[in-house]
Amino acid sequence: MAYSEAQKRATMKYNAAAYDRIELRVPKGRKADIEAHAKGKGESINGLVNALIRDDMGLSDAEWKEAQP
């Protein structure tokens, strides 16, 4: 099934309302290393970074997902 323009707009609207974006810069050539490392752990880069930050902050998965005012 094709991904319609309406679905794309709805997804973009949801993501804008539900998530904050953080840009991460790494040395040139390291992106592939990071992708391979994340894949080896069964994660995406985003999932790996979120898990590392969550663990470093000492938060449970539920606490991490809970929105802060």
Any key phrases for this structure?
69 residues, mainly alpha, 4 helices, 61% helix, extended
Q: What can you tell me about this protein's structure?
A:
With 69 residues, the protein is mainly alpha-helical. 61% of the residues lie in helices and 0% in strands. The protein contains four helices and no strands. The chain has helices spanning 5-18, 30-40, 45-56, 61-65. The N and C termini lie far apart (38 Å). The mean pLDDT is 92.
The span between the termini is: 38 Å
% residues in beta strands: under 5%
Overall radius of gyration: 15 Å
Structural class: mainly alpha
**Mean of residue pLDDT?**
92
User: So what's the oligomer here?
Assistant: single chain
Number of strands: 0
Summary of the model, kept short:
With 69 residues, the protein is mainly alpha-helical. The protein has 4 helices and no strands.
Write the layout of secondary structure elements.
Elements: H1 5-18, H2 30-40, H3 45-56, H4 61-65
